[in-house]
Amino acid sequence: NAGVTQTPKFQVLKTGQSMTLQCAQDMNHEYMSWYRQDPGMGLRLIHYSVGAGITDQGEVPNGYNVSRSTTEDFPLRLLSAAPSQTSVYFCASRPGFSGANVLTFGAGSRLTVL
Amino acid sequence: LAKTTQPISMDSYEGQEVNITCSHNNIATNDYITWYQQFPSQGPRFIIQGYKTKVTNEVASLFIPADRKSSTLSLPRVSLSDTAVYYCLRGANSKLTFGKGITLSVRP
After folding, report:
1. What is the pLDDT of residues A44-68, one digit of tens each?
2. Which residues of B touch A105 (CB under 8 A)?
3. Residues of B in contact with A104 (CB under 8 A)
4. How confident is the model at residue B25 (pLDDT cuts 50, 70, 90)?
5. Nearest to A12 by CA among A82, A112, A84, A109
6. A23 pLDDT exceeds 80?
């Protein structure tokens, strides 16, 4: 049981490049989400999904796309990277759609956009 | 999105009890209050969750007053390893939003 796995751990991009941050969980969690963490800003919700085929926007969705074709995977896509997207990205999941907000987080992906 | 607010940082000494408070504006009737701990270069991890009154587990206690507009995380007898950022999270639906977190520094 690996929990939430994020890849890559580190990535450097040039402005305008595209890339996908991968997130996979093996706990059969219905809910998955992406956060970005910047100094002094805490964790901000980018996108989330309550199940396969269902996604929605969080607080800061601009510049990011997501899809949820399977229960296990929730990739985050940057179509044209900008320096403002330099951040640490965390994927998190939880079982079901309920009041229990016990999220399991991945180890994070540090992205630098030059 | 409703927000949580916390002070930015606080200091303590080993062996002391530490209380960290979070304010929740416009908390909804069915919202739970959850606290997380984050060490450098790691993802946040769940500490404790509550809805009202008091909840206690093996690592912390959570106090929630009757109006539920704030919550207090209590860490008994902190050690150096409790130095971390602590976040409160509130919500009962899908948009789970965090405050900016409070950095707790525990000194010898």
Report:
1. 999 999 999 999 999 999 999 999 9
2. 43-45
3. 46
4. confident
5. A112
6. yes
Determine, for residues B43 and A107 on separate chains, whether the beta-carbon distance falls below 8 Å.
yes
pLDDT computed for residue B92 by the predictor: 61
pLDDT band at A99 (very low <50, low <70, confident <90, very high): low
Exposure class string for A31-57: b at 16+ Cβ within 10 A, else e: bbbbbbbeeeebbbbbbbbbebeebee
Our measurement of the distance from residue B15's CA atom to the centroid of its chain's CA atoms, rounded to an integer in Å, reads 19
List of residues 6+ apart from B57 with CB closer than 8 A = B47, B48
Q: Which amino acid is at A15?
A: T
Partner-chain contact B100 A42, CB within 8 Å: yes
Q: For residue A12, what are the CA distances in angstroms to A86, A113, B84?
A: 9, 6, 27
A59 and B97 within 8 Å at the Cβ level: the answer is yes
